[in-house]
Structures are given as structure tokens and as C-alpha cells.
Amino acid sequence: MRASIIIPAHNAQRTLARCVGACLSQEYPDFEVIVVDDGSTDATASIAREIAGITRIQQENQGPAAARNRGAGAATGEILVFTDADCVPEPGWLARLLSAFDDGVAGVGGTYTCANPERRLARVIQAEIARRHAQFGDRVDFLGSFNVAYRAENFRNVGGFDESYRQASGEDNDLAYRVEASGGLLRFTSEAAVAHYHPDRLWRYLRTQARHGYWRIKLYRDHPARARGDQYAGLPDLIAPPLALLGAALAPALAAAQALGWNGIRLLPALASVWTVTALLHAPLIRQMRGALAPADLLYFGLVLLLRDVARAAGLCRGFWDFQVRGGS
After folding, report:
1. Among 16, 10, 67, 71, which residue's Cα sits nearest to residue 42?
2. 28, 108, 205, 277: which has the highest count of C-beta atoms within 10 A?
3. Residue 329: pLDDT band by 50, 70, 90 thresholds?
């Protein structure tokens, strides 16, 4: 089977060359590499021009879903393989990914390793991803676009990525849900891995999580039956953010009530209850992480979980306003 590796790239000057080099180094008999520059304002386009042996496409900034579709439109392979410009495929990645295709399999996804483990935030992000992926079986209901391959026929039959997801969030869930609904089998293999440069700055990571919360509202509006979650993000991941936001709001309300001379202490049981339920929702994950992280990293992970929940909830609120109240597309 001929494979087309498609890499959307937006302001990816720091990582693009390493990503493409790792793709070109794959030991597989028949493949092409397509880089789609999604309106970058840095040196991404010039870096791509200097790399021999690839197809280069440029477009105005339209988001990764549109960039992937543009690459798929130029692809000649029977299998469309997607990875991101901040990922570095491991040796043997392409062959292992494609070897998982059997009759009836429409899409195959792989896993992450960490390209920057020296950074604490990156380490805890990777540890969580590894724990979640370890629970996957052979058949899954979600595949991430950082490391995924689809039969071109199945991809095109469902219309490819939905370009109304203008940012990198929700578009891969949406595609996987539509492919599965059309009768295509989705498979996961931990043998096919890409090293990812995980976020290493907390504030930037929290902004990304707020974006994920925002696009989740559109995703669940488009796929209401999936509002209970999928195999990667379950119901506790959906319930915890609103609770954390409520807890974050109750704390200053209690303080303000006390400052105004009211009996704000009466809010204390409600505040304690909210944080207790939030902690209980995360308890299974934290227990699983105990063997994967040093004690100091585990404490840091707990703080990240709390802040992430609040950030996601803020995004959920904004998304609810835009997609549910205002009826945005």
C-alpha cells in the first residue's frame, strides 16, 4: 500500500525539520511526504523549501483541519497518514502503523513518547497520556490526529476533516466519530509511536486546555451521543471542570462575604464538598500515576489537574455561549 504522510505546519520553525527528517527516514517501500504550510509568519515556509524529496503546499491560515484536507487532496497514497509538525516519528513508525490495517479497518492510531522529558510539565503530561493509552484495547472509538492513518477511501467518503473546527481541538474526535459511524473499524497500536514536544510552560498549557474546553461544546453539539465521553476522556473528565470552576468561584465569594460582615463561613461546607467531589473524580487517575511519577512530580501533577479543570471550564463557558446560545457553526 502506498502511504501519504501529511504534516500541517503553522509557525513550526523550531521542530519542522526534525519532524520531516524522521518521516523521510522511515523504512517503508512506497510513501510520500506532504508538508502544508498553514499561513505561517515565521521561517516555516523557507525551511520546508530547503528540504528535498517532499511536496510543499502553502495556504492562507485556515487551521489544521483545512491544512490536512489540502494535503489529502494532493495525496496519491491509498493510506493517508497524519502527524504534527511538533512530533518526531520513531524508526519503524510508518511500517508498524500500516501493518495494523486488516480488512474492515478504516483507521489506525498510535501513541506518544516525550521529546522533552527534561521539562517537568512535559513529563507529567506524558505520564498521564501513557496511563490513558495503556487502558486502550485493540479497538477504540477515538484516534488523535498527531499519529493516525486512514484509508483514503474511508477518509473521503465522510468528507475528511470538518474545517469549521478552526483550531487544533476536536477535529480529530469529530473525524473518528464519523468514520466509526459509517461502519469503519478504528484500531490502536502502541507499537507505532511519535515523540512529541509537550507543552513546557504552564500558562501556555492552560490556554490550550481552555481552547479544548471551548471546542468540546461544538463537538458535543455535533455528536450529542458522545457527550458522555470516549475511551480517552470519560465522564469524570467532563464533570470535574465545572465543579472546579464552581470551587474557584466559591472561595472568593466566601472571602468577600466575610469582608462585608456577612456570615461567609456558611459557604465553607459547600466549598469543601465541591473540592472533595472533584478530588474523588480524579482519585483513580492519581492512584495510577503514583508508580509513574516521583513524589514531587505527583504533587505537581495534582496542581496541574486543578488548574487545568478551571481552564477547561472557562473554555466550556465561552463555547456554550458561542455554540449553544449564539448558535455559531
Report:
1. 10
2. 108
3. confident
Write out the three cell numbers for 31. 510513501
SS3 35: strand
Q: What Cα–Cα distance (Å) separates residue 86 from each residue in 89, 141, 142, 154? A: 10, 24, 21, 26
All three cell numbers of 88:
518526531
- Main-chain dihedrals φ then ψ at residue 293, nearest 5 degrees: -125, 145
**For residue 165, what is its C-alpha cell?**
473546527
Give dist(CA 139, CA 180) in Å, integer: 11
| Span 193-218, pLDDT tens digits | 999 999 999 999 999 999 999 999 99
Count, residues in the chain = 329
Residues 88 and 181: their CA atoms lie apart, in Å, by 31
Confidence of residue 263 (pLDDT cuts 50, 70, 90): low
Q: Tens digits of per-residue pLDDT, 60-112?
A: 999 999 999 999 999 999 999 999 999 999 999 999 999 999 989 999 999 99
Contact between residue 137 and residue 188 where contact means Cβ atoms under 8 Å apart: yes
What is residue 236's predicted lDDT score, i.e. its pLDDT? 83
* β-strand partners of 8: 36
In DSSP terms, which residues pair with 148 in a beta bridge? 82, 109
The dihedral through the CA atoms of 171, 172, 178, 179 has a sign that is: positive
Q: What is the torsional sign of CA 213, 214, 216, 221?
A: positive
What distance in Å separates the CA atoms of residue 61 and residue 217, rounded to the nearest whole number? 23
Torsion angle, CA of 318/67/198/192, rounded to 10 degrees? 130
Burial of 297 (0-12, 13-18, 19+ CB in 10 A): middle
Largest Cα span, the chain: 76
Residue 65 per-residue DSSP state: H
Contact 76, 2 (CB under 8 A): yes
Total-model pTM:
0.92
